[in-house]
Amino acid sequence: MPVPRLLWSLPEYKNHSTKEVKLVRKSRIIDHAAIDGISGMISVMGVKYTTARHTAENVIDLVFEKLGFAPSPCKTSTTQVFGGQIDHLGELLSRTIKDDSSTLTQDTINHWVKSYGTEYSEVRTLLDVSEQQVPYSQDSYPVTSAQVKYAVQKEMAIKMSDVLLRRTGIGSVGLPAESILESIANTMAAELDWSPLKIKAEIEETKKYYRRHGSFEPMEKNSEIL
Fold it and tell me: Is residue 42 part of a domain?
């Protein structure tokens, strides 16, 4: 029996008539052998970040079952996520707001602490002295160039799609404005030594992705670079 191949989807869908983006409420695990007669393929749809580990546990159990093995006991429910060494989130958030409110907005601090946890300070060190509040913002959580740098340096982001869709949420609801794409590309270029041709290619590849998935209209309304 071939090793099952896993396909993961974004945790949302877009209503093209209303342009409304909604989260899928429940994950769906599809065994294509049972549904389509395709042996060795499993699809996972609508994965929410808050339930992803439980979904992953179910998927791995299914993979072991299809391979004819008993799975080892899962430890995900007792394993802290990276940056999750937090006893009291409220205390960490209050302390961070007190320390950094003169540099970052409370919304940004709140988002960073809840996104990075105890790794917050690592992101904070990458914030440029000249950077004011929120360089990139749109119909999503605020994203700064420090987060882009962190994605490259610590989270193995090597393409714009990594930053837009998998390391930050700035591209989750649609194609960011052209000015934001250029700023993110230039920040990544400085980290990864991209040439001007590479910058252009990454931007065009990003646009092709959104065309292919029907979300090409730029999210200009609430987009800005300070």
Answer: yes
pTM for the structure as a whole: 0.67
Q: Above 90 in pLDDT, residue 203?
A: yes
148-151 contact pairs (CB < 8 A, 24+): 148/184, 148/187, 148/188, 148/191, 149/187, 149/191, 150/116, 150/122, 150/123, 150/126
Percentage of the chain beyond pLDDT 70 is 77
Give pLDDT, residue 184.
92
What backbone phi and psi angles, to 5 degrees, belong to 55? -60, -45
Tell me: do 135 and 204 sit in the same domain: yes
Both tokens assigned to 110: 């709140």
How many domains, in total, are found in the chain? 2
CA distance 73 to 193: 44
d(CA 136, CA 140): 10
Do 113 and 141 meet the contact criterion of CB atoms below 8 Å apart? Answer: no
- Residue 189 has a pLDDT of 97
